Amino acid sequence: MLSDPAAAAWRAAGQPTVEGPPPTLGKCGRCGATDLTVASSRIVSEFFTGFEAWPYGSRRLCVPCTWGYTNRPADAKPLLITTDTVTEYSDASHLCEVLTAGALPANSAVVVPAFNKLRRRHHILPTTQWAHLATDTLLFPWDTGAAQRLADLAWLRHSVGASWSQLQRAAPEPKLITTRPHQSWPRILTAWTQLQPWRRIPPLWDAARSLTAPPKP
Ligand SMILES: [Zn+2]
Predict the structure, then answer these.
(1) Has residue 12 been placed in a domain?
(2) Residue 142: exposed, middle, or buried by beta-carbon count in 10 A (0-12, 13-18, 19+)?
(3) Bigger pLDDT: 24 or 148?
(4) 6 CA distance to ligand 1 centroid (A)?
(5) 46 in a domain, yes or no?
(6) Which residues lie at CB < 5 A from ion ligand 1?
(7) Rounded to 10 degrees, what is the CA torsion of 125, 120, 166, 139?
(8) From ligand 1's centre to the CA of 52, what distance in Å?
(9) Hey, which end of the chain has fewer CB within 10 Å, N or C?
(10) Which of 4-8, 33-37, 46-50, 102-106 has the lowest mean pLDDT?
C-alpha cells in the first residue's frame, strides 16, 4: 500500500526532524503508524479543531505527520505530491495543466491554498489524500469530470474573456455571448452551466479561481 501524501512529502523533503523533546514510541493519532511520536500538544495549539479528522484515537503524532503541521497555514504553497517527489509552485496556476489533463492518478495529490491569504487558516498537508485536491477545509476527489470542469473554466476565462465577477452568475451576460462567433455559443452556455455545482462549494470555487488565474511572471 502507498503511504499517504503527507508522509511521501516528508520523505521527499529529506525526512526532516522536528523541534522539541525526543520522540518516543507510540501510535500516531492521524495515520495510525506505530513509530516514534510526539504529544500533539507540542504541535497544535489548544484551539486546534482538527482532532475529529484523526481516526486513530491517540493525541500523539509520528514525525512525518508532525512535520505536516510545522509550516504556518498562511505560508502554504501549491504542491504536487507523488509517492517519491514533492514539487512546490509559486502560483497555483502552474498546476492547471496537470489538473486539466485528466483524473489525478492514485499516486498523486495536489495542495491548493486559499486564494485569499487571510483565509489560509488550516494545515492542508495533513488532510491530503491520493487522487484528491486538498484546499482549506475541503478534500475533493479529482476525477475526469473535475478535470473537464476546470478546463472549461480556464477556457471561459482565457479564450472567451469572462471576468471572475461575470463567472459568479449562473448564466453568462448576453453581450459576452453575442460578441463571440455564433458556433461557440452552445459551448459557452454548456461550460457555464456545468460550473454551477462548483459555484455552490466556496472552497472549491476559490481553488478553481487560483488554478485558472493568469500565471504570474
Ligand atoms: Zn502519522
Answers:
(1) yes
(2) buried
(3) 148
(4) 9
(5) yes
(6) 28, 30-31, 33, 62, 65
(7) 30
(8) 15
(9) N
(10) 46-50
Rounded Cα distance, 18 and 20, in Å: 7
Clarify whether residues 25 and 61 are in a common domain: yes
Q: Going by DSSP bridges, is the β-strand pair 132-135/108-112 parallel, antiparallel, or unpaired?
A: parallel
Q: Say how many Å lie between the CA of residue 154 and the centre of ligand 1.
A: 36
In a domain, 214, yes or no: no
Distance of CA 55 from the midpoint of ligand 1 (Å): 11
Q: Is the pLDDT of residue 1 over 70?
A: no
Taking the centre of ligand 1 as the mean of its atom positions, its distance from the CA of residue 54, in whole angstroms, is: 9
The percent of residues in the chain predicted with pLDDT above 90, rounded, is 65
Residues 32 and 53 in one domain: yes
Both 108 and 160 in one domain: the answer is no
Question: What's the CA-to-centroid distance between 11 and ligand 1, angstroms?
Answer: 13
CA of 53 to the centre of ligand 1 (A): 12
Strands 108-112 and 79-82: antiparallel
Q: Predicted ipTM?
A: 0.99
The string of pLDDT tens digits covering residues 34-74 is: 999 998 887 777 667 777 778 888 889 999 988 888 888 88
State the distance from the centre of ligand 1 to the C-alpha of 7, rounded, in angstroms.
Answer: 8
Which range of residues forms the domain containing residue 45? 6-68
Phi, psi (deg, nearest 5) at residue 190:
-65, -50
Structural domains of the chain, count: 3
pLDDT top residue among 28 and 42: 28
Are the beta carbons of 92 and 184 closer than 8 angstroms? no
Q: Is the same domain home to 60 and 97?
A: no
Q: How far is the CA of 133 from the centre of ligand 1 (A)?
A: 20
- 194 vs 33, residue with greater confidence: 194
- Region 14-43: mean pLDDT is 88
